[in-house]
Specification:
The relative contact order is 0.07. A hairpin with a 2-residue loop joins strand 4 and strand 5. This protein has 419 residues and is α/β, with parallel strands linked by helices. A six-stranded mixed β-sheet has the order 4-5-3-6-7-8, sandwiched between helices. Keywords: GTP-binding, Nucleotide-binding. Pfam families: Septin (PF00735). Belongs to the TRAFAC class TrmE-Era-EngA-EngB-Septin-like GTPase superfamily. Septin GTPase family. This is Septin-type G domain-containing protein.
Length: 419
Amino acid sequence: MAAIDVEPPKTETAMRTLKLSGHVGFDSLPDQLVNKSVQNGFVFNILCIGETGLGKSTLMDSLFNTNFESSPSPHNLPTVKLKAHTYELQESSVRLKLTICDTVGYGDQVNKEDSFKAVVDYIDAQFEAYLQEELKIKRSLPAYHDSRLHVCLYFICPTGHGLKSIDLVCMKKLDTKVNIIPIIAKADTISKTELQKFKSKIMHELQANGVEIYQFPTDDESVSEVNGAMNAHLPFACVGSTDFVKIGNKTLRARQYPWGTVQVENESHCDFVKLREMLIRTNMEDMREKTHARHYELYRRRRLQQMGFTDVDADNKPVSFQQTFEQKRSAHLAELQQKEDEMRQMFVQRVKEKEAELKEAEKELHAKFDKLKKDHTEEKKRLEELRKKIEDDTIEFNRRKQQTTQSHHTLTLGKSKKK
C-alpha cells in the first residue's frame, strides 16, 4: 500500500498530521493461515466400498505410495463389518492423519438386502460423534479427531454389463451422506472399446436412478478446466499394484502378464494418475469442506429438528436456542409430572385392587376355616357317639360273657352231683 500524506484542514485550530508510510501487512494473512494449517496438520478419511477381492487395499497402497499391511478378508462373514485404520503420513513438512475404512464382507452374503445398513450406520455414527462434541459446554474441536468420512471410493466389479442392484441401492443411500467417486476396479480385465461402453452405461444408470456422485468443482478458475475435463472421465478405470517392474531405466508400479505389462502410472493404460490428481493433489480440501458444509450440515439439521429445535416459531419469528431449550425443558418437566401422576394413580389403583384381592382371599379363608371347624365338630360328635356305642357294646358283651360263664359253671356242677 502506498504512503498517503494527510494535509491538515484549514481551520483556526491546528490538527496533528497523520502519515501512513510503508507497508501495513495484512496481505500476509494467507501465509499465516498456511503456517497454522501446516503446524496443525490435516485429516482425511476415505471409505472403500466394494466386493471382497476387487483390490481396494492394493489401490490404497498405490495411491499413497506406501504399504498399509492390510490383511486379506474372508468370504464367509455373515454380515458386513467396517474396519477403520488410521495412519500418520508426512510429505515434506505436511503431516496427514489418514484413515482408511474398509467394508469387510460386502456383497458376500446370500441375502444382500441390508448390506448397505452397516455402512449408513457407521457414517451416521461419525456425524453423531462430531455433533455431540459440538454440543458440549467445554468443546475441544481443535484437538478432536475428526472421523467423518470425506470421500467414498465405490469399487465397481468389471463385468462390462452395467451396475448391479446392490451398487445402485447402496450409492443411492449414501449420496446425501458422503462424496461418492465410482471406480471401475481391475480395469486391465476389460478392453478399451468395452471400457468406454461400460463407463457410458454406468453414468447413464446412475443418472436414471437419481444417484448423485461427487462432481469436481469448476467454480475456481485455476482448476475449472482440468476438473471439467476429469468429470467427463468418470467413473475412473483404475489398476493398482504393489509390485515394481523395471522398464528401461525406471522402476515403476506395474502388473506383469504373459502378454505384456500394465503400468499403473501410465495414463494410456488406466486412469490411476487421474484419480490420484483429483483425489489428493487437487480436490482434497474441497471434499473436506463439502463434507462439513453439506453432508454434515444436513445431518445436523435433521438431528436438531428431531430433538425439537427450530429457528422460527409458529408466527415465523426468530427463536433463540435458549428459548427452545426452555420450552423443551418445560415440556419435558410437564411430561415427567404427567407420567408421575399417572404412575401414582396406577399405583393407588393397583393397591386398591390388591386390597380387594386380599379381602376376598381373607373372606374365602374365613369361610374355609368355618367349614373346616364345622366339619371338625361334626366329626368329633360322630366319633364321640361311635365311642359311646362301642363302650355300650363292650359292656353288653361283658355282661353276656359273664352270664354265659355262670351258666356253663352251673351246668358243670349238676353233672358232678349226679355221678
